[in-house]
Design goal:
This protein has a domain of 136 residues: 2-Layer Sandwich (HIT family, subunit A). Helix content is 25%, strand content 21%. The chain contains 7 helices and 14 strands. Helix 1 crosses helix 5. The termini are far apart.
Length: 341
């Protein structure tokens, strides 16, 4: 038997590297270890720890030491704005450095006050922080996509006990996001209607999977839910950009209310979940084809997806990458609708 090759240790510049899967066109971030973020000396996100030495990317109120919402660079970022992509071939493969941005949104100075328990007005300010940072990150033409996400609970990979969200910006569009963009585009090309608008019309007419709604927003369990109690939130009025749609005080406040209510319902089922905010990609990105997204303002619809984590009831990907959901969305929506919030 031939002696097995002994590979060298990972070089410092390869500690965080993006590699492209040639079979799926999906970019995968390769990490060399995953250091702990808690330092054992108290919460790093509490006001006392975030002193004058911490860089501030956004703050509300602006210039006030008694901040209510604050955005800072991530302590251990997956992506770095100062990095050079250095796209290069590696035989049949493609790779690049971890160009991008990774930020932490500190949602409240109170260490124990979760997003669902904050006031409507405060959650609206968190939403405005998201919008402001998305707009700013899209000014960097190297970055094609910005996403906001929130992992709550140990099972979801929550790194800090403090209430927080994260924002990442990347020089590529993630694979599943790309699928949704393309299918929305194709639906519009055939029917000249937004796919999401058609779905929302049916959900509101049938009211079999709806959880909560008003004249501006709706929360429902999607028809092909990937996990039990998966929930999506959409604006009823069509808009492809969250960061433009949420700018008025009324819109932000109304969305804050339905988001809080939905989270409270889901937290009666599970304290752990993944939340992802989807908005249109950066249309001014350097490597974006100008003619590729001609109809995106008409065919794409911003939204939030929430996936609760219920280990004993979910077998996602256990059947050869096909999602398995043991609780039909019609039953899940009925159970969530009954919850008193």
């Amino acid at each position: 038997m031939a002696e097995r090759t002994r590979y060298p240790q990972t070089a410092p510049d390869q500690a965080k590297q993006l590699r492209k899967d040639p079979f799926t066109n999906n970019w995968v971030l390769q990490l060399s270890g995953e250091p702990a973020l808690e330092n054992g000396n108290g919460c790093r996100l509490c006001p006392g720890a975030l002193g004058s030495g911490s860089q501030t990317l956004y703050q509300h109120p602006f210039g006030n030491s008694s901040w209510q919402v604050r955005v800072i660079p991530h302590f251990n970022p997956l992506y770095r704005t100062e990095a050079d992509a250095k796209r290069q071939a590696d035989g049949n493969y493609d790779r690049m450095q971890n160009l991008g941005a990774h930020e932490i949104v500190v949602e409240h100075p109170d260490h124990k006050l979760s997003l669902s328990r904050q006031s409507d007005e405060h959650v609206a300010q968190v939403l405005r922080a998201y919008a402001t940072r998305i707009v700013d990150l899209k000014k960097d033409r190297r970055l094609r996509h910005v996403i906001v996400f929130r992992n709550q609970g140990r099972a979801a990979g929550q790194d800090f006990e403090h209430p927080y969200s994260e924002i990442t910006a990347t020089p590529f569009i993630p694979r599943r996001v790309g699928y949704k963009l393309r299918w929305s585009q194709r639906h519009y090309a055939v029917k000249e209607r937004c796919l999401a608008c058609d779905v929302l019309k049916q959900e509101l007419a049938e009211q079999r999977r709806t959880i909560e709604w008003d004249e501006m927003f709706v929360a429902f369990c999607p028809y092909a839910s990937r996990v039990p109690y998966e929930t999506w939130l959409f604006p009823l009025n069509h808009h492809h950009l969250f960061e433009e749609d949420i700018t008025t005080g009324k819109t932000a406040l109304r969305f804050a209310r339905i988001l809080k209510s939905t989270l409270r319902r889901l937290e009666t089922i599970s304290s752990s979940y993944h939340l992802v905010l989807h908005t249109s990609p950066n249309l001014n990105a350097k490597f974006e084809r100008k003619d590729h997204w001609q109809t995106i303002a008409e065919d794409y619809h911003w939204h939030i997806e929430i996936l609760p984590i219920i280990p004993q009831r979910s077998k996602s990907y256990s059947f050869k990458e096909v999602y398995y959901n043991a609780i039909p969305p019609e039953y899940a929506a009925q159970e969530l609708w009954k919850v008193t919030v």
